[in-house]
Amino acid sequence: MTQPTTLAERAAAAAGRTERESSSPVEFTTPNTPVDTTMPDLGDYEPGDDDPEMIPVHLAWLRVRRDVRGIAKREQYNAAGTRYNFRGVDTVVNTFGPITLKHGVNILPVRVDAEYRDTTTSKGNKMRECTVTVSWQVIGPMGDTLPSLLQSQGEALDSADKGSAKAQSVALRVLLLNAGLTPTHDKDPDASHVDRGEAPRRSARDYLDEIMRPDTARARLAQINYEIKQAGLYSAIVTNEDGAEEQLGALLFRVGNERIAGGAQ
After folding, report:
1. Is residue 149 part of a domain?
2. Range of the domain at 250
């Protein structure tokens, strides 16, 4: 049996098509055009120990979002009198990469539209600006895709031949952050203002008292878990019921497990 050699032949073989069926040119779906989301027939396929669960793509992507949780703006730009924090491409890709792999989600660029413009810096150096619009297809572990292609844009300046690659990297970062609704967990700039009826910020001691109340439901404990992470109190040290110091998050986890074991609702 002849082994597939070209990329198209290997892709066709992986999809279960014949070489004859894959001989026609590949046609990319244009943006905003619905794609076929019919789940392929997996036949007698049995997932291996390391394979993701065979679930629809929208559920797999939801699990990716659930595992990512948040990416803080911990990198800093400080040049030319400008200073700000940001989430870099490497940080975002390093966060999403292993998690999409875990859940069997593939994110593939299927179309790149680029525009270029020559420009000059304030010091007279010649630069080339590249702006790209990338169309992405999100594929789940079963081979089904989201109902339509996703689009994101990226822009970059470069003095050599790296502008296109940089711009596409930016577009990938934008896609992952936007499609993943990825929070930064930054503090609300208005958190210190209570003149509009907002409740004042709660202390670790307040949360401790609520956690330890026997009538606090498991659903409320789960909500407290989210709140203390948002407030930066997860690692706050409190005094537990035995008089020992313990992190608030660890105490919450322990109490929650004890109540689950006791049959609490």
Report:
1. yes
2. 204-261
